[in-house]
Design brief:
The protein is mostly helical and 317 residues long. The protein has ten helices and four strands, in the order αααββαβααβαααα. Helix 2 crosses helix 10, helix 5 runs antiparallel to helix 6 and helix 8 packs across helix 10.
Length: 317
């Protein structure tokens, strides 16, 4: 709880920036949240809605980020059941919140052309550990609405993160004996996209499946409609009924899937310093869309289990 509180103590200092280690970027994370929202049971949907419902003045939302004193008219970021998936990336980039950096990934070493050093598993503080922590915390059901909203926000984001293959591995080579930081040190070139300079960023952007620029926030009606449409598209392409693995709610399985995909797909058929081929890009986009749908299905299944009972309606005055 001390860590969570620290985020909010330092909000007045935050003008968060995006970095190359942000999984899926805003669009992808919101697609995961939208897929999950469409799959929530009535009880879970009521709970999620209650956690992120705009409060009646003078109360504040459970989760928000402002560069000054909270004012609903001027606060830069107030969250709902879709945008909450981006909250963890929004408060990154500030040195006072660097303690959260390791939460976004669980890097298992992948030795490519060099001897195995014998290192077992990722660093102790990692996405897998924090997903388990979030699930266990919510399962206890003892927190205040604000704490539940914060922990649920962590869960939304981290489930998305860990379905991005490069958030589960670090490729160790002679050039990068300490690992390539999940592809951040694997340099590539994408014509017309100077900011997409490494493999990690390319996969964060789902290989360009939804373009390389995210929607402006706060979301207007057109942006919300686009996120909904994209979520429905990936669900249509990857129906839950055709994916029995969607029923697997063991976070360790999710990490191992991503690790395997990174080794067998992400690092294959691409050369450091080169340009992703059309075949590689097409395959990356297809796999990324599937992983986003799968993350949404699994997140919904976890939330449906955690929030099986709808919240009590507030007493009438």
């Amino acid at each position: 709880m001390r860590h969570i509180c620290r985020v909010f103590i330092t909000l007045a200092l935050l003008l968060a920036t995006q970095s190359s280690a942000l999984a899926w970027h805003d669009t992808g994370h919101m697609i995961v949240a939208q897929v999950a929202y469409l799959r929530l049971s009535p009880a879970a949907k009521a709970k999620v809605d209650a956690l992120y419902a705009p409060p009646a003045p003078p109360r504040r939302p459970n989760v928000y980020l402002c560069a000054g004193y909270y004012m609903p008219e001027t606060c830069e970021k107030i969250y709902d059941p879709i945008t909450i998936a981006v909250w963890m990336d929004d408060f990154r980039g500030d040195s006072l919140n660097s303690m959260y950096d390791n939460w976004h990934y669980a890097d298992y070493a992948f030795y490519d052309g060099v001897p195995d050093s014998g290192k077992v598993g990722p660093e102790p503080e990692n996405a897998l550990a924090r997903i388990n922590w979030a699930i266990n915390t919510l399962r206890e059901g003892k927190g205040t609405p604000r704490r539940e909203a914060e922990v649920t926000g962590f869960l939304y984001h981290l489930v998305g993160d860990i379905h991005q293959p490069l958030h589960a591995t670090a490729r160790v080579t002679a050039a990068h004996p300490e690992g390539d930081q999940g592809g951040n040190l694997f340099k590539i070139q994408v014509p017309g996209q100077p900011r997409v300079s490494n493999l990690h960023t390319f996969w964060d952007a789902a290989g360009g499946a939804f373009g390389f620029e995210g929607p402006k926030r706060p979301l207007d009606q057109a942006a919300r409609a686009r996120i909904l449409s994209l979520a429905q598209e990936v669900m249509k392409e990857n129906p839950a009924e055709s994916m029995p693995e969607a029923l697997d709610t063991d976070p360790h399985t999710w990490v191992m899937e991503s690790y395997k995909l990174a080794r067998e797909v992400v690092y294959k058929d691409i050369t450091e310093g080169g340009e992703p081929s059309k075949a590689y890009t097409d395959a990356a986009q297809k796999l990324a869309r599937k992983r986003l749908a799968l993350a949404g299905y699994r997140l919904a299944n976890v939330l449906n289990e955690l929030f099986a009972v709808a919240p009590a309606s507030p007493a009438k005055p």
